[in-house]
């Protein structure tokens, strides 16, 4: 392989986090290694091109001048004389590339990015349930708009669920031999190379559209699982755990209060979290003692089938909420750390806007791991007040509305 030479298409901005930008470049360098040889051979000996880790162009030895621009805006990204190098764009999202190759001052090759009829990989680089289910609706939109052969890569533990939700989108183990372009779908927050938008201020469910060049709303995913009812009685599912305490609901005994009132209304309340107890720092989350315990290593597909017939799901900004949404179960989403626009749209969102809230979508905040639980009020009495200030009555009002039940709380 030729020595690597990188070029940048986007202009640096004041919002860029240099540390995270460096981490992104390191990750993409690893992906470039895994992509291996270029798939797209040309009629010029030694010249090859593909878009499997951004734009990649192998330039053989010789007197070559490479001109790379945007086919629509005409903005020039690269225009230099080079020889015996692999030219790679730092940006890994969709750009309307126009590539013109000159040798001895004469145009010998020209290509405009066009995925029509080509194999395109949607690589769900984030293995989180919510991220994956937020991104994949764009696979169908991309396939239909460009008449492309779209395939996807997802984490092993998500394959069964994704195959059931997207039987028309093949799942692959790696980069196909005939792959023309690959998109690495992640939130890529606080860095400039994975997505062209500011991840903090952009809806999670639209980020994949920005990465793949589809600035449109994806088709709504609502596909109930074909399965029998698991229980004859009416029931509600809950999920009290999340990947970080800042996503949790920390009103004292809030879950127990909600479960008790729902049970008194004649509903079974079933907790379908994976664990009965989770710990992070000083925070412990137990499933409510009065809820039915259906925790454990139950396949996600089985959880999806249970959610298909639930009257509603009460959860957090986490993966189970996205699964419930995907199978058409009304979702009561309790979240103070994110803004309304971040997750999927639900009329049963529960948030207290009269307290501090929405830090996840504040571009001034950098989340690196879980050391910072509450970026505004860590270590004070106001820590996680966005969550503590959500009263059980707020949750119950949304839950009964989701079920179409009128009741005095």
Could you write a compact summary of the structure shown?
The protein is α/β, with parallel strands linked by helices and 409 residues long. It contains ten helices and 20 strands. A hairpin with a 6-residue loop joins strand 2 (40-41) and strand 3 (48-50).
Question: Could you characterize the architecture of this molecule?
Answer:
It is a single chain. It contains ten helices and 20 strands. With about 400 residues, the chain is of the alpha/beta class. Helix 2 crosses helix 5 (about 205-210) and helix 2 (about 130-135) runs parallel beside helix 8 (about 320-325). It has two domains: about 1-220, no CATH class; about 235-405, Glycogen Phosphorylase B (Rossmann fold). The chain has helices spanning about 20-35, 130-135, 135-145, 160-165, 205-210, 255-265, 300-310, 320-325, 385-390, 390-405; strands at about 5, 40, 50, 55-60, 65-70, 75-80, 85-90, 95-105, 105-110, 120-125, 150-155, 180-185, 235-240, 270, 275-280, 285, 290-295, 315, 330-335, 350. The mean pLDDT is about 95.
């Amino acid at each position: 392989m030729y020595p690597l030479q990188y070029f940048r298409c986007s202009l640096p901005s004041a919002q860029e986090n240099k540390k995270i930008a460096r981490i992104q470049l390191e990750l993409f360098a690893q992906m470039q290694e895994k992509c291996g040889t270029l798939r797209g051979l040309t009629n010029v000996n030694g010249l090859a091109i593909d878009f499997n880790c951004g734009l990649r162009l192998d330039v053989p030895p010789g007197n070559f001048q490479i001109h790379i621009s945007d086919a629509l805006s005409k903005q020039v990204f690269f225009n230099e004389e080079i020889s015996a190098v692999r030219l790679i764009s730092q940006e890994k999202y969709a750009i309307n590339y126009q590539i013109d190759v000159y040798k001895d001052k004469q145009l010998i090759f020209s290509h405009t990015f066009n995925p029509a009829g080509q194999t395109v990989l949607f690589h769900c680089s984030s293995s989180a349930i919510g991220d994956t289910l937020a991104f994949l609706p764009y696979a169908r939109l991309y396939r239909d708009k460009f008449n492309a052969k779209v395939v996807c890569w997802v984490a092993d533990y998500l394959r069964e669920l994704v195959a059931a939700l997207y039987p028309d989108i093949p799942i692959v183990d790696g980069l196909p031999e005939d792959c023309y372009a690959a998109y690495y779908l992640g939130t890529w927050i606080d860095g400039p190379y994975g997505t062209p938008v500011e991840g903090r201020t952009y809806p999670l469910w639209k980020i994949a559209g920005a990465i793949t060049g589809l600035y449109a709303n994806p088709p709504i995913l609502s596909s109930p699982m074909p399965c029998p009812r698991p229980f004859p009685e009416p029931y509600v599912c809950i999920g009290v755990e999340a990947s970080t305490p800042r996503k949790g609901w920390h009103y004292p005994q809030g879950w127990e209060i909600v479960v008790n009132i729902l049970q008194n209304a004649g509903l079974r309340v079933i907790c379908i979290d994976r664990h009965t107890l989770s710990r992070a720092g000083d925070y412990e989350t137990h499933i409510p003692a009065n809820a039915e315990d259906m925790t454990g290593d139950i396949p996600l597909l089985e959880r999806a089938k249970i959610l298909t017939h639930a009257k509603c799901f009460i959860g957090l900004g986490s993966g189970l909420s996205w699964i419930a949404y995907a199978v058409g179960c009304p979702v009561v989403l309790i979240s103070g750390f994110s803004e309304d626009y971040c997750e999927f749209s639900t009329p049963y969102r529960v948030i207290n806007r009269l307290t501090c809230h929405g830090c996840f979508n504040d571009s001034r905040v950098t989340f690196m791991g879980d050391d910072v639980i509450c970026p505004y009020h860590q270590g004070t009495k106001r820590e996680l007040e966005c969550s503590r200030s959500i009263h059980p009555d707020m949750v119950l009002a949304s839950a009964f509305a989701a079920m179409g039940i009128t009741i005095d709380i």
